[in-house]
Design goal:
alpha/beta, single chain, 24 helices, about 525 residues, about 10% strand, 7-stranded parallel beta sheet
């Protein structure tokens, strides 16, 4: 027999019991023949005997987290002839353990709903991120109750914070569950859902119908473009993944293991030495810009001085030994290209950093208010031992990798589309004007988002149609303003500051490459 399973989770006194009662009273469970409620914690609101008897509910207390296994669920469903199980889950238990349970037979988890009281949401969000994150990351819906005193801006803030943790979950503000007919629809039995015609099914049928009537020639062109985009998309991901993984481990180590005092001593001295150290530090991190993006995020979350961190970010690719080697092989007849790339990258990095320092821009002024939630902390190190720290770093790297990877996918897709269409477009605007050449190469560098360790070879393909300073700007500015990396940094920095940083970097870059053009 098929068994539908719904999980309602949330912290103590969040309103889980009230939510479950309203759902049952709505009649959504009336079609089930056998129903059980697994109660993992007891709050102020209780299920009375009359209520349980009226709706024919088998109440089963669960006192230990590891009791709920696939075999246990299968056992109670067969013994009590159940086709529906509702779990009121303890908010302090790790819900990932429940999801990792291998269900047997036809048991399937249908919905996971996280219930929260509006008045305590921000407090939990700020102070109990370690408990809140797993619950909301794995939830299909977040139901917020007792929200009547919230202003419109406060409700929007809660929605944004939920999206920060789980971009695909839906936030629902509930006065009474029975009044929200659309939300109640998620509790429709699977067997009934099969009979429903969804908007997605209608859209799919329309697309298939359209493709049936398209001429073969159009389909061929369409297929060619899709093929180019998909190949480019996969190549960008394949290049980026190893470096992102390495960067995630470095970021995890920085946030969990490296003492704050060490980092502060290295980068917080507002002198030319700190900027020199920041600009040359990339030599000791021989990964591409994809891997440095999560590392830079980790530095910012440590609240290190913004000018020095930005200098490190901008100059790191220029002094990367792997990047230097790629320029050596890409321009065998032009050895000055190596020195030009190193110096221009360092000059731009230090220049932008100095300007930010003169403008007195602080990290706290430009970092997103909700960036702190994704910050790992030493409470992840469960035991003060080498094994415990290694386990914490691995767990932190896992969190950091999957947090960053969704941004990489978005950036890689946009970049692959641009990489497919931009090369043909660029040739149409070739001009002898240095400003136009610089602008074209800058746009190409941003949206093509090629890896810093290989973009010298792509820059070489432009050599001949464009002057060397313009090609150099493509190689140097690409890692600095890489589209996918900017998306990653937008998870930490405000969009307004990122836009200002891009404009400032472009202006300093143009002055630098104008100077290079005069010298060469």
């Amino acid at each position: 027999m098929a068994v539908d399973i719904d999980v309602v989770t949330g912290f103590l006194e969040s309103g889980k019991t009230t939510f479950i009662k309203q759902m049952i009273e709505s009649g959504k469970t009336a079609d089930y023949e056998g129903m059980a409620l697994l109660l993992c914690e007891e709050g102020e609101e209780e299920y009375g005997e009359d209520f349980l008897e009226q709706y024919k509910i088998n109440l089963i207390p669960v006192e230990e987290e590891d009791i709920i296994t696939g075999d246990y669920i299968n056992f109670i469903s067969e013994r009590r002839n159940l086709d529906y199980i509702l779990i009121e889950y303890n908010g302090t238990w790790n819900i990932q353990n429940l999801l990792n349970t291998k269900l047997t037979g036809e048991c399937r988890i249908r919905n996971i709903v996280f219930v929260s009281e509006a008045g305590t949401f921000n407090s939990y969000y700020s102070n109990m991120a370690g408990l809140l994150r797993p619950q909301m990351e794995n939830s299909d819906y977040v139901a917020v109750n007792r929200y009547q005193e919230l202003k419109k801006a406060d409700k929007k803030d809660i929605i944004n914070k939920v999206k920060k943790i789980n971009p695909v979950t839906k936030t629902v503000f509930l006065d009474s569950l029975a009044e929200d007919k659309r939300f109640l629809g998620i509790f429709t039995p699977f067997e009934d859902r099969k009979k429903m015609v969804t908007p997605g099914m209608v859209l799919l049928m329309l697309v298939l119908l359209l493709l049936c009537f398209l001429p073969t020639a159009y389909l061929s062109v369409f297929y060619d473009y899709i093929k180019k985009i998909s190949v480019s998309f996969l190549s960008i991901l394949i290049q980026a993944i190893p470096f992102i993984l390495l960067g995630a481990f470095l970021s995890s180590i920085l946030q969990l293991i490296v003492p704050m005092s060490f980092l502060i001593r290295q980068l917080s001295k507002n002198s030319w030495k700190s900027f020199a150290a920041a600009s040359l530090a990339g030599f000791f991190f021989p990964v591409c810009d994809c891997g440095l993006a999560p590392l830079v995020s980790g530095l910012l979350k440590k609240n290190l001085p913004l000018p020095q961190v930005i200098t490190f970010w901008l100059a790191s690719a220029a002094v990367n030994p792997v990047v230097i080697l790629s320029v050596y092989y890409a321009f065998p007849e032009n050895r000055t290209a190596i020195l030009a790339r190193i110096l221009s990258g360092v000059i731009i990095g230090i220049g932008v950093g100095f300007i930010l320092m003169l403008l007195r821009v602080k990290t706290k002024d430009v970092i997103r208010s909700d960036a702190g939630l994704s910050q790992m902390s030493v409470d992840m190190v469960y035991e003060n031992s080498r094994t415990g720290k290694v386990a914490a770093v691995i767990k932190g790297a896992q969190m950091e990798f999957f947090r960053v990877f969704k941004y990489v996918i978005i950036g890689a897709f946009v970049s692959s589309v641009c990489l497919t269409f931009l090369p043909q477009t660029i040739k149409m605007f070739i001009s002898g004007n240095a400003l136009i050449q610089f602008f074209i190469m800058l746009v190409a560098a941003v949206f093509m988002s090629t890896c810093s360790t290989s973009n010298a070879f792509i820059g070489r393909s432009f050599y001949g149609q464009f002057a060397f300073p313009a090609v150099l700007s493509f190689m140097v500015m690409g890692p600095m303003l890489d589209f996918k990396n900017l998306i990653i940094l937008s998870e930490v920095l405000t969009k307004k500051f990122i836009l200002q940083l891009c404009l400032l970097t472009a202006a300093v870059g143009f002055l630098t490459f104008t100077f290079v053009r005069i010298i060469l």
